[in-house]
C-alpha cells in the first residue's frame, strides 16, 4: 500500500488530519452564491480586478491558481497562506512557496471588495474565486465556485514542510501523491485532474534539475524522462541555478488546455510528480483519455476544484472575516 503504509494507517492519518482541519463535515456551510444578498457584486468585482490584472500581467495566472492549492492543502482553505508574520514564520515563507507570487493582487481584490461591502467577503473565498477567474482568463473552464469560507488565524512555517501532512514535493512518487490526496478526502481522479493545473505556468530549475544532472547522486539523469527533452532543458538550466525557470507546459504555458497530459504521456512531464502519474494505471488511463476526442478534462477540473475548495473549511461562526488579507483582525 501507499508508501509502505497500510490501509489502517491511512485511515488513522485521515482522522488526524481531518480533525486538524475541521470538526465539520467537508464543505458543510459552503454554497454557490453565498454573497448574493450580503454583497451581490462580489464575484463581478473579483472578476473585474482579475481581468484588469491579466491584461497587463498574464504570467500571474499560474501563481494565482497555485495559491488556492497551497491554501487548501495546509490547514484547509482558510486563507492561511496569505498571512504575514513579523518574523517570517508563517506558511508563505516556507520553502515550497518558492514562486508563489501575486499576494498583492489578492490585496487589490480585497480592497475593492471592502469598498463595496466592508467586512463581508473572506480572504479564503477571494483566493478560491481568483483561482477560477485566472483559469477562465487562460481559456480554461468556468465552474461555479462555492463560497462561505471564513478566515483562519494560524499560519505556521513548519506546516508546508511537515512530512506526509505538508505539501507534496516535486519529487513525490505516486504513492505519496495518492496518500496526500486521500488524506484530504480527495481521490486519485482528483489527483490527476488537478495536476492538470500544470498546463499553465512555470517552474524554477531547482524544482527539477536533479532529473537532469544528479538523479541518484551519481551524476546521472532520470531514466524516465525523454533524453531529447533532458538535453533541451540542460541548455536552459545549469547545475544549481536558483533563478532560471522553464515552462511547465512548453509551447502553451499561457493557455489552459490538454497539452500537459500529451507531454506527460510522452515522458516530457517537467516535474517528477508529473512523471509519476504514469506509474498508476488509473492516472495513466485518465491522461490518455484527457488527450482524446471525448476528453472530459475541462468539466472534471471544475468538479475537482470544487472538491479541493471544500477541504477543512471554516464556516458559520468559525474563524473571522479578515479586513486585510495579510493580517489577522
Ligand atoms: C501533484 C502535486 C503537485 C506538486 C508536487 C506541485 C509542485 C509544483 C512545483 C514544484 C511548481 C514549480 C514551482 C517553482 O519551482 O517555481 C509548481 C507550479 C505550479 N503548480 Fe503545482 N504542484 C502540484 C499540484 C498542483 C495543483 C493541484 C495545482 C492547481 C490546481 C497546481 C498548480 C500549479 C501552477 C499553476 C504552477 C505554476 C506556477 C507559476 O507559474 O509560477 N499544482 N507546482
Ligand atoms: C515513495 O516515496 C516514499 C517517501 O519518500 C518512500 O517511503 C516509498 O518507499 C516510495 N515508494 C515507492 C514505490 O517508491
Ligand atoms: C522577511 O522576508 C523578507 C523578504 O521576503 C525580508 O525582506 C525581511 O527582511 C525578512 N524579515 C525578517 C524579520 O527576517
Ligand atoms: C550529486 O549528489 C551527490 C549526493 O548527494 C553529491 O555528493 C555530489 O556532489 C553531487 N554531484 C554534483 C555534480 O552535484
Ligand atoms: C484564533 O481563533 C480561535 C478561534 O477561532 C481563538 O480561540 C484564538 O484565540 C484565536 N487566536 C488568535 C491569536 O487570534
Ligand atoms: C513570497 C515569499 O514569501 N517567498 C518566500 C518563500 O520561501 C523562501 C524560502 O524559505 C523565502 O526565501 C521566500 O521569501
TrEMBL record:
<keyword id="KW-0560">Oxidoreductase</keyword>
<dbReference type="Pfam" id="PF00141">
    <property type="entry name" value="peroxidase"/>
</dbReference>
<feature type="binding site">
    <location>
        <position position="76"/>
    </location>
    <ligand>
        <name>Ca(2+) 1</name>
    </ligand>
</feature>
<dbReference type="InterPro" id="IPR033905">
    <property type="entry name" value="Secretory_peroxidase"/>
</dbReference>
<feature type="binding site">
    <location>
        <position position="249"/>
    </location>
    <ligand>
        <name>Ca(2+) 2</name>
    </ligand>
</feature>
<dbReference type="GO" id="GO:0006979">
    <property type="term" value="P:response to oxidative stress"/>
</dbReference>
<keyword id="KW-0106">Calcium</keyword>
<dbReference type="InterPro" id="IPR019793">
    <property type="entry name" value="Peroxidases_heam-ligand_BS"/>
</dbReference>
<feature type="binding site">
    <location>
        <position position="91"/>
    </location>
    <ligand>
        <name>Ca(2+) 1</name>
    </ligand>
</feature>
<dbReference type="InterPro" id="IPR019794">
    <property type="entry name" value="Peroxidases_AS"/>
</dbReference>
<feature type="binding site">
    <location>
        <position position="80"/>
    </location>
    <ligand>
        <name>Ca(2+) 1</name>
    </ligand>
</feature>
<dbReference type="InterPro" id="IPR010255">
    <property type="entry name" value="Haem_peroxidase_sf"/>
</dbReference>
<comment type="similarity">
    <text>Belongs to the peroxidase family. Classical plant (class III) peroxidase subfamily.</text>
</comment>
<dbReference type="GO" id="GO:0004601">
    <property type="term" value="F:peroxidase activity"/>
</dbReference>
<dbReference type="GO" id="GO:0042744">
    <property type="term" value="P:hydrogen peroxide catabolic process"/>
</dbReference>
<dbReference type="InterPro" id="IPR002016">
    <property type="entry name" value="Haem_peroxidase"/>
</dbReference>
<comment type="function">
    <text>Removal of H(2)O(2), oxidation of toxic reductants, biosynthesis and degradation of lignin, suberization, auxin catabolism, response to environmental stresses such as wounding, pathogen attack and oxidative stress. These functions might be dependent on each isozyme/isoform in each plant tissue.</text>
</comment>
<dbReference type="GO" id="GO:0006950">
    <property type="term" value="P:response to stress"/>
</dbReference>
<keyword id="KW-0349">Heme</keyword>
<keyword id="KW-0479">Metal-binding</keyword>
<feature type="active site" description="Proton acceptor">
    <location>
        <position position="70"/>
    </location>
</feature>
<feature type="domain" description="Plant heme peroxidase family profile">
    <location>
        <begin position="29"/>
        <end position="329"/>
    </location>
</feature>
<feature type="binding site">
    <location>
        <position position="257"/>
    </location>
    <ligand>
        <name>Ca(2+) 2</name>
    </ligand>
</feature>
<dbReference type="GO" id="GO:0046872">
    <property type="term" value="F:metal ion binding"/>
</dbReference>
<keyword id="KW-0376">Hydrogen peroxide</keyword>
<keyword id="KW-0408">Iron</keyword>
<feature type="disulfide bond">
    <location>
        <begin position="72"/>
        <end position="77"/>
    </location>
</feature>
<dbReference type="InterPro" id="IPR000823">
    <property type="entry name" value="Peroxidase_pln"/>
</dbReference>
<keyword id="KW-0964">Secreted</keyword>
<dbReference type="GO" id="GO:0009505">
    <property type="term" value="C:plant-type cell wall"/>
</dbReference>
<comment type="similarity">
    <text>Belongs to the peroxidase family. Ascorbate peroxidase subfamily.</text>
</comment>
<feature type="binding site">
    <location>
        <position position="71"/>
    </location>
    <ligand>
        <name>Ca(2+) 1</name>
    </ligand>
</feature>
<feature type="binding site">
    <location>
        <position position="168"/>
    </location>
    <ligand>
        <name>substrate</name>
    </ligand>
</feature>
<keyword id="KW-1015">Disulfide bond</keyword>
<feature type="signal peptide">
    <location>
        <begin position="1"/>
        <end position="27"/>
    </location>
</feature>
<keyword id="KW-0575">Peroxidase</keyword>
<feature type="binding site">
    <location>
        <position position="199"/>
    </location>
    <ligand>
        <name>Ca(2+) 2</name>
    </ligand>
</feature>
<feature type="disulfide bond">
    <location>
        <begin position="205"/>
        <end position="237"/>
    </location>
</feature>
<dbReference type="GO" id="GO:0140825">
    <property type="term" value="F:lactoperoxidase activity"/>
</dbReference>
<protein>
    <recommendedName>
        <fullName>Peroxidase</fullName>
        <ecNumber>1.11.1.7</ecNumber>
    </recommendedName>
</protein>
<feature type="binding site" description="axial binding residue">
    <location>
        <position position="198"/>
    </location>
    <ligand>
        <name>heme b</name>
    </ligand>
</feature>
<feature type="disulfide bond">
    <location>
        <begin position="39"/>
        <end position="117"/>
    </location>
</feature>
Amino acid at each position: 500500500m501507499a508508501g509502505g503504509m497500510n490501509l489502517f494507517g491511512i485511515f488513522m492519518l485521515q482522522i488526524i488530519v481531518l480533525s486538524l482541519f475541521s470538526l465539520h463535515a467537508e464543505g458543510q456551510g459552503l454554497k454557490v452564491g453565498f454573497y448574493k444578498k450580503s454583497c451581490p457584486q462580489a464575484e463581478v468585482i473579483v472578476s473585474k480586478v482579475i481581468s484588469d490584472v491579466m491584461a497587463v500581467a498574464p504570467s500571474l495566472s499560474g501563481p494565482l491558481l497555485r495559491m488556492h492549492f497551497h491554501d487548501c492543502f495546509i490547514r484547509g482553505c482558510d486563507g492561511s497562506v496569505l498571512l504575514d508574520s513579523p518574523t517570517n514564520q508563517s506558511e508563505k515563507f516556507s520553502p515550497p512557496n518558492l514562486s508563489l507570487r501575486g499576494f498583492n493582487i489578492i490585496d487589490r481584490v480585497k480592497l475593492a471588495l471592502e469598498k463595496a461591502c466592508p467586512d463581508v467577503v473572506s480572504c479564503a473565498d477571494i483566493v478560491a474565486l481568483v483561482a477560477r477567474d485566472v483559469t477562465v482568463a487562460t481559456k480554461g473552464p468556468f465552474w461555479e465556485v462555492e463560497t462561505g469560507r471564513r478566515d483562519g488565524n494560524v499560519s505556521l512555517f513548519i506546516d508546508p514542510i511537515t512530512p506526509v501532512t505538508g505539501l507534496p514535493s516535486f519529487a513525490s512518487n505516486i504513492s505519496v501523491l495518492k496518500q496526500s490526496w486521500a488524506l484530504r478526502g480527495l481521490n486519485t481522479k482528483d489527483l490527476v485532474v488537478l495536476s492538470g493545473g500544470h498546463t499553465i505556468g512555470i517552474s524554477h530549475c531547482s524544482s527539477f534539475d536533479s532529473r537532469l544532472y544528479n538523479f541518484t547522486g551519481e551524476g546521472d539523469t532520470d531514466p524516465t524522462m525523454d533524453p531529447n527533452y533532458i538535453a533541451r532543458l540542460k541548455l536552459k538550466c545549469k547545475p544549481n541555478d536558483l533563478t532560471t525557470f522553464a515552462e511547465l507546459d512548453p509551447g502553451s504555458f499561457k493557455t489552459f488546455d490538454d497539452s500537459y497530459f500529451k507531454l506527460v504521456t510522452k515522458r516530457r512531464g517537467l516535474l517528477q510528480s508529473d512523471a509519476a502519474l504514469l506509474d498508476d494505471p488509473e492516472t495513466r488511463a485518465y491522461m490518455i483519455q484527457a488527450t482524446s476526442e471525448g476528453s472530459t478534462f475541462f468539466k472534471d477540473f471544475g468538479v475537482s476544484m470544487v472538491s479541493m475548495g471544500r477541504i477543512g473549511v471554516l464556516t458559520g461562526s468559525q474563524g473571522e472575516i479578515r479586513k486585510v488579507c495579510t493580517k489577522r483582525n
